Backbone:
């Protein structure tokens, strides 16, 4: 193969390498869009359940025991709180931008190895991202309503991080592996965190009704899936645009 | 062969450095927004951490 690659003008220095800017631009757009949609969905579907659970966490409502007369399942919860919910919107956009900053370099790596990256394949990347950072950790540590009993925070964060890492590498091997050894490794990595098991509390002491806990977990995961599929699609779309622009500029 | 793979090969190590820098920045944001336990940060991100499934207090 001739070294046609020398025809292109190399960047003047690593600092001016446009790769970082391209990733940053794509990630901020994709993360802000998916994060904003996720935040609005959470405000509509998850926040009322969280506020309801906090009434039990704070003792305003009591589910069992003395004073535990039947409570209405639909108490008044208060409406939109500009500061609290505004911060939630900002942090959700920040978190999805953070996810996109990790997702897009992985897309770029796969692209260099021959994978097609666009909005449509991005949807699959998003589904895989959802499994990696939501579904797999939730299999051991389901999204918690405030007030539930839980093991030591540090232990849970370690298990969460290790599970995300093992699941991410496992899915990469499943998707891009080319041998039975790689696919076998994928199975081991996907199963291992759950065979080891998540840290669990010594006793259950959560005051929140199970109806609220189950609804909260289901809605948090459902919105996670919607947001991640959108994030993957947006990331693929913006990344394809950025790389097409680069190709056009250099062949011109 | 596409221009994309040509330029990717040409500036390979710089691209990897740029990709790694972006990923590290992303992980830093995720750690700060999702896991750091500093009081004000925890309070501000509290609802999001619950709704996004991060381990929280």
Residues:
């Amino acid at each position: 193969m001739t070294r046609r690659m020398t025809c292109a003008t190399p960047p003047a220095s690593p600092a001016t390498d446009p790769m970082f800017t391209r990733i940053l631009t794509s990630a901020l757009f994709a993360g802000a869009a998916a994060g904003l949609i996720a935040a609005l969905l959470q405000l509509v579907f998850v926040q009322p359940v969280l506020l309801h659970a906090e009434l039990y966490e704070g003792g305003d409502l009591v589910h069992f025991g003395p004073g535990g007369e039947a409570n209405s399942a639909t108490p008044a919860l208060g409406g939109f709180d500009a500061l609290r919910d505004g911060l939630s919107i900002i942090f959700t956009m920040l978190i999805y931008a953070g996810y996109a900053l990790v997702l897009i370099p992985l897309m770029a790596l796969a692209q260099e190895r021959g994978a097609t990256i666009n909005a449509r394949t991005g949807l699959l990347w998003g589904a895989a991202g959802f499994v990696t950072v939501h579904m797999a950790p939730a299999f051991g540590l389901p999204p918690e309503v405030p007030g539930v009993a839980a093991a030591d925070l540090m232990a849970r964060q370690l298990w969460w991080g290790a599970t995300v890492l093992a699941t991410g590498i496992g899915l990469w091997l499943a998707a891009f592996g080319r041998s039975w050894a790689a696919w076998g490794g994928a199975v081991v990595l996907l199963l291992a965190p759950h065979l080891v098991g998540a840290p669990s509390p010594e006793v259950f002491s959560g005051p929140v009704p199970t109806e609220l806990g189950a609804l909260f977990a289901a809605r948090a995961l459902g919105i996670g899936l919607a947001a991640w599929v959108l994030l993957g699609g947006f990331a693929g779309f913006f990344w394809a645009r950025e790389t097409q622009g680069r190709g056009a500029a250099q062949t011109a | 062969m596409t221009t994309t793979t040509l330029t990717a090969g040409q500036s390979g190590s710089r691209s990897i450095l740029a990709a790694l820098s972006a990923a590290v920045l992303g992980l830093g944001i995720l750690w700060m927004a999702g896991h750091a336990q500093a009081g004000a940060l925890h309070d501000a991100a509290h609802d999001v951490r619950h709704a996004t499934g991060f381990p929280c207090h």
Chain B has three helices and no strands. The longest helix of chain B spans residues 12-35. The interface with chain A takes residues 2-11, 14-15, 17-23, 25-30, 33-35, 37, 44-45, 47-48, 50-57 of chain B (CB under 8 Å).
